[in-house]
């Protein structure tokens, strides 16, 4: 099938790797991206073993230089985590062209992020575009303790929360906190909820209780407890 659908694949090589934490790894891929549509929020994919594929959203793309960064979160022992741990400089592989939902809403002037480690790459890319457009953003990310330092290192200005301490509350409690802390955003912002499926569900309910319109809530679950792949 890879031969039949050759136009859907981009040959790439790994030109750099960097561990941002024990479970976070930034990998830079080099390839010819001149004909690919890397819209913000679109995901690329890799075959991680003989039978499975996994999707990843790029953290940065430079079509002119043929470079693409992906931040991999290795939060278990599944095939995606093993694949990303094994990536080494000089490796050659095939990347499925970007596709998916266009999450980013460039016409909005206020943007709110909520997610976890799996969303850091996309949030950092969104933040750069928002700054370029002279718009504003804020947000909250729930992270493991060792990763609380990462958002500033990725030039991402968001509130950091220890994982499970925030979304362990009721949607009603979270909604009241959001109303008291981010009133202007509740009225005007687009909300991007990414990462853990259970946390997204709680946060979305909190927003709906505060009368945030569904059309202003963009969601994308990347993983769920006890489930290998989504």
SSE order and pairing:
Blueprint: E1 9-21, E2 24-31, E3 43-47, E4 53-56, E5 60-62, E6 67-73, H1 79-86, E7 92-99, E8 110-115, H2 120-132, E9 136-143, H3 150-153, E10 159-162, H4 171-181, H5 183-188, E11 190-196, H6 197-209, E12 217-223
Parallel strand pairs: 8-9, 8-11, 9-10, 11-12
Antiparallel strand pairs: 1-2, 1-7, 2-6, 3-4, 3-7, 5-6
Helix pairs in contact: 4-6
Keywords:
single chain, seven-stranded antiparallel beta sheet, Elongation Factor Tu (Ef-tu), domain 3, Rossmann fold, 230 residues, alpha/beta
Can you walk through the features of this model?
The chain has 230 residues and is α/β, with parallel strands linked by helices. It has two domains: 6-99, Translation factors (Elongation Factor Tu (Ef-tu), domain 3, Beta Barrel), CATH 2.40.30; 110-223, Nucleotide-binding domain of ferredoxin-NADP reductase (FNR) module (Rossmann fold, 3-Layer(aba) Sandwich). The protein is built from six helices and twelve strands. The strands form two sheets. Strands 4-3-7-1-2-6-5 form a seven-stranded antiparallel β-sheet. A five-stranded parallel β-sheet has the order 10-9-8-11-12, sandwiched between helices. α4 packs across α6. The mean pLDDT is 93.
Task: Summarize the structure in short.
The protein is an alpha/beta fold and 230 residues long. Helix content is 24%, strand content 35%.
